[in-house]
Design brief:
Elements: H1 2-24, E1 32-37, E2 40-44, H2 46-61, H3 66-80, E3 92-93, E4 98-99, H4 107-110, H5 113-124, H6 135-143, H7 155-165, E5 173-176, H8 185-196, E6 202-204, E7 207-211, H9 216-232, H10 234-237, E8 241-244, E9 247-250, E10 259-260, E11 268-272
Antiparallel strand pairs: 1-2, 1-5, 3-4, 6-7, 7-11, 8-9, 8-11, 9-10
């Protein structure tokens, strides 16, 4: 009997402890990202943010205009909802539903977003005057879809996301996430390098800074492109804080978005994982 009461008491104690922990724990946020540019509010999930920001980074690295980013995002919206899916019509897979039978590459290659995005841009730049074409026309010349007009329905979202992610609409792209922490700066800098190419980073423990050089307007656009990329991948990379251009974002207060913060360098993007 004494043993039975001991077990009951232990169960009650454990239940109380769990209840206290659950009571004190912050409720989980609904995680998502949003670009608010003009009257357009483009809300996307974290995976969509990851691949849209990668499309933007790769187009910037290749020296392509923001129009190219818009076309890529609109195309991926239509083809896969910007999800890297391993299925599709016939042998179509990936972000752009590229087909092995049409020479886009192997299934393994196409399912690598760095590869598939690169191949999309390879095809896009071969379209003469794509910068002046309607977005749906440019997308169709690359994709040769059975539904050529379908890309048009995603133009507003794609324009807003491209404008924000390429840095031409400062502090307009943010993500609301649940803080995770325990990220590492080497992982962050390696990810940025894979997306943007060689970019100077100065690291110090859990912090990294990206000093930018060039004209004021160029630095502003490139700085916000990088800052927006980092916030779009903050959950995955376990980033805690990002700052640029007198604005700061933190995972802890991510529902506040980019907040005014004095004393920050206007030519340096800073990121922390502590």
């Amino acid at each position: 009997m004494r043993f039975r009461w001991f077990v009951v008491l232990a169960l009650i104690t454990a239940t109380v402890m769990v209840a206290v922990v659950l009571r004190d724990r912050e409720p989980l946020r609904s995680e998502s990202c949003v670009a608010e540019v003009g009257t357009v509010r483009a809300e996307i999930d974290l995976e969509q943010a990851r691949w849209a920001s990668l499309m933007s980074a790769i187009s910037q690295r290749r020296g392509l205009p923001p129009r190219a980013t818009t076309i890529a995002i609109a195309t991926a919206f239509q083809e896969s909802k910007i999800h890297n899916i391993d299925f599709g019509d016939r042998d179509s897979v990936g972000l752009f539903q590229q087909r092995t039978s049409q020479g886009w590459g192997t299934i393994e290659q196409i399912l690598n977003p760095y590869y598939s995005i690169g191949r999309f841009y390879d095809a896009l730049v071969k379209v003469r005057g794509y910068e002046r074409l309607q977005i749906t026309d440019a997308a169709q010349r690359v994709q040769r879809s059975a539904y050529p007009s379908a890309y048009a329905q995603h133009e507003d979202y794609a324009r807003a996301l491209a404008s924000a992610l390429r840095g031409y609409s400062p502090a307009t792209f943010t993500c609301q996430i649940n803080p995770k922490g325990s990220g590492t700066i080497p992982r962050v800098t390696a990810d940025v390098k894979a997306a943007f190419g060689d970019i100077t980073a100065e690291t110090d423990g859990d912090d990294a800074s990206y000093p930018l050089e060039g004209g004021a307007s160029d630095v502003k656009a490139r700085g916000w492109a990088l800052a927006h990329y980092l916030v779009g991948n903050a959950s995955r990379l376990r980033i805690t804080d990002i700052s640029f251009g007198n604005r700061a974002w933190s995972a802890e207060d991510s529902d506040d978005g980019w907040t005014a913060h004095s004393g920050l360098d206007s030519d340096t993007v800073r990121v922390s994982t502590n």
